[in-house]
Amino acid sequence: MPPSTESTLADVAQAAGVALSTASRVLNGERGHRVAAATRERVLAAARELDYRPNAIARGLRTARTFTLGIAVPQLENPVFPQMIVGAEAAARERGYSLLISHVAESDTESRTYERLASVSRVDGLLVATLEDETRLAQALATTSRPYVVLNRKLRGVDNHAVFDSFAAAEMATAHLISLGHRRIAHLAGRLKGYNGTRRLAGFRAALRAAGLPRDAERVIPAGYTFEGGVIAMRELLRDPVRPTGIVAATMLAAAGAMKVLHGEGVAIPGEMSIVAIHDATIADMLYPPLTTVRLPVQELGASATRGLVDLIEGKATGVAITLPPQGLVLRASTGPVPGPAPKRPSRRA
Amino acid sequence: MPPSTESTLADVAQAAGVALSTASRVLNGERGHRVAAATRERVLAAARELDYRPNAIARGLRTARTFTLGIAVPQLENPVFPQMIVGAEAAARERGYSLLISHVAESDTESRTYERLASVSRVDGLLVATLEDETRLAQALATTSRPYVVLNRKLRGVDNHAVFDSFAAAEMATAHLISLGHRRIAHLAGRLKGYNGTRRLAGFRAALRAAGLPRDAERVIPAGYTFEGGVIAMRELLRDPVRPTGIVAATMLAAAGAMKVLHGEGVAIPGEMSIVAIHDATIADMLYPPLTTVRLPVQELGASATRGLVDLIEGKATGVAITLPPQGLVLRASTGPVPGPAPKRPSRRA
DNA sequence: TTGAAAGCGCTAACAC
DNA sequence: GTGTTAGCGCTTTCAA
Question: What per-residue confidence (pLDDT) applies to B277?
């Protein structure tokens, strides 16, 4: 029965009849220092007996290390962030660190959050998974003496990052549609000024060009990265006189929104319109029809960034610059061959 | 320009020409202690000048308070947990606390995680959002001297909890189907031994009884709380010679899995089968057809539990026992009137 | 109203 | 191999 009050290293040392420092040596994987086997046993026994648990705070004060990583995430509702967190948490744990999470509301104009996270000496390093390309963020980051890695985008004046190859992902998605015979393809883009938004748009265009498609075969509508954004963008798209036969959505959530609108309008997927999205998660399989996606290694991004950050902290690296390629196309049921003739001018075959 | 090295309270005191303790008094909202206005100004100015940020670790060591709450979550993929976290984070921040997150893998048989979380003095209290009704967990909790609140279930021998009224939620969902004329109703249950699983099943049965339906009008299949669980359960259900016309799913994810199977089998929703689920999230609106749900105040659960925990920590409460009622039915398109005659024995009216 | 000083629990020199 | 000791940065008596 452990005592009601937490036992300290001093208690252990006393119980084992050794000096404080000896107990400390035994309980840490002493480096270089050798301790007699008998002594070590006594200390270990005492620690077990007293249910000793090192006080992380005291250790942190002494070593200026907390073995805690801060992670700032916006929008926990977007499945991409939980996925990143899962990856980060696993990698952190593997390296002996914990994760302090901070949900940064997007509306949080004060950015006090970043400062709070960055300022205090409670974390050894920072993972920043923001959606914004804010200079504000870069500034806040600049004031911290702790290493950090920015997730999912590169920021001006910020060195360390872990990103997806968004260009390649969009190219892959678009090429898939092209290979199915689609010629009029629209892009539900992310934020047109955002890091990933611009790159996915560029990849989309590059694929069209590579297939020799004329410029007017393309249609781009910003949809942001939310379900609602997808709804709004798709509604607008349907107002066009000529409908595309294929859609490349920059995000899975936007694709889901688009599909909702298509269902509402009675547009058959993929009969009349195919849709492919970038990013993959269980949700893609819940949609109807199940959504074809280009899979992004989201957990791996969180994990790689975390490993890089820990390397930074432990002086094993001086910079982190990670770019992860897409993991390939996950073929589901939302894409199919291009429908026969163009709906506008009925012709040869039904 | 702040110095490259973090400045300490001693630096501030020196710069202001006062004693360390005086600086401390100024910088904390000194209690009872009065400081001369002039002194206070000087200290404040010095702190600003030096970009002083209190060292949370040192403070924590001294006060034995970290203003950090630990939260253990399994399965971040299930949208219910991110939602809880968002609520918890907001409430924590409101009270001046941060959230230390720990992803507890379900397979983690060692339960070292709980101990890790519970043991160290890095958190002032613990939020536990586990899926398991483990005695293991109760044991781990028992060894910590920190207050804790268990989310989403009551555990034997564990006092503090915040739960949903699962019984009422299931009753509400079932009553909805009954009011639409459904008589043969199946229940995709949660875990039959789980806290919520048993209560939702009980609510389901109570509603049937209240409507005077015979016992054989009911069919119960455990589906767990995952998409895959829903798929498997629904497949099994469809093997029955007599199909139900309505389904009450204990979780949204299971409902999504069930819908996938129904689509695959060409069963019209709600034309041939209606489905209602407990729990609501954006996903419900992404499904096709959009899923009717009984909304649960998930964020609020996280927030209430957190407030309760902080009260516990700060001695403002001696126990936390929160039960949150469902927020009502969110009528979408997956439920509708019962289809004509029963397929097995056609009778009186169409 | 302010200052001096003790000490939270621990690690890491340094001495023996 | 083991013990002694000096702090890490802070809050909080206790004295002045």
Answer: 98
Q: Are A121 and A176 in a shared domain?
A: no
pTM of the model: 0.90
User: Percent of chain A beyond pLDDT 90?
Assistant: 69
Whether the CB of A56 is below 8 Å from some CB of chain B: the reply is yes
Please identify, among B32, B54, B76, the residue that sits at the C-terminal boundary of a domain: B54
Residue A18 is part of a domain; what is its CATH number?
1.10.260.40
On whether residue B190 sits in a domain, the answer given is yes
Residue B165 pLDDT greater than 60, yes or no: yes
A271 touches chain B (CB under 8 A): no
B202 and B281 fall within a common domain: yes
| Inter-chain residue contact B285 with A260, CB threshold 8 Å | yes
Query: Looking at the domain assignment, is residue B327 inside a domain?
Result: no
**Is A76 close to B98, i.e. CB distance below 8 A?**
no
Comparing alpha-carbon positions, the chain B residue that sits nearest to A262 is: B288
**Residue in A82, A98, A121 closest to B82 by CB:** A82
- Same domain? For B186 and B270 the reply is yes
Residue B29 lies in a domain: yes
- Count of structural domains within chain B: 3
Strand order through the sheet with B125-128? A321-324, A161-164, A148-151, A125-128, A68-73, A98-103, B98-103, B68-73, B125-128, B148-151, B161-164, B321-324
Same domain for A286 and A183, yes or no, is yes
Percent of chain A with pLDDT over 70: 89
Region of poorest pLDDT, from B30-39, B130-139, B338-347: B338-347
Q: Is B92 in the same domain as B115?
A: yes
CATH at residue B86: 3.40.50.2300
**Domain annotation covers residue B347:** no
The nearest CA of chain B is from the CA of A286 a distance in Å of 6
Contact A68 B227 (CB under 8 A): no
**HEC letters along chain B:** CCCCCCCCHHHHHHHHCCCHHHHHHHHCCCCCCCCCHHHHHHHHHHHHHHCCCCCHHHHHHHHCCCCEEEEEECCCCCCHHHHHHHHHHHHHHHCCCEEEEEECCCCCCCCHHHHHHHHCCCCCEEEECCCCCCHHHHHHHHCCCCCEEEECCCCCCCCCEEEECHHHHHHHHHHHHHHCCCCCEEEEECCCCCHHHHHHHHHHHHHHHHCCCCHHHEEEEECCCCHHHHHHHHHHHHCCCCCCCEEEECCHHHHHHHHHHHHHHCCCCCCCCEEEEECCCHHHHHCCCCCEEEECCHHHHHHHHHHHHHHHHCCCCCCCEEEECCCEEECCCCCCCCCCCCCCCCCCCC
Q: Are residues B77 and B150 in the same domain?
A: yes
Test the B interface: residue of A78, A282, A291, A298 with most B CBs within 10 Å: A282
CB contact under 8 A, A259 and B286: yes
Same domain, A210 and A285: yes
pLDDT at A345: 46
A179 and A134 in one domain?
no
- Chain B residue numbers with beta carbons less than 8 Å from the beta carbon of A66 are 57, 122
Q: Which residues numbered 154-213 in B keep a CB inside 8 Å of some CB on A?
A: none
DSSP symbol at A338:
P
Range of the domain at A187: 166-297
Q: What percent of chain B is modeled with pLDDT above 70?
A: 89
Contact B73, B85 (CB under 8 A): yes
pLDDT for B329: 98
The reply to whether residue B283 touches residue A286, judged by beta carbons under 8 angstroms, is yes
Nearest residue to B162 via CA among B171, B149, B174: B149
Average pLDDT, integer, range B70-87:
88
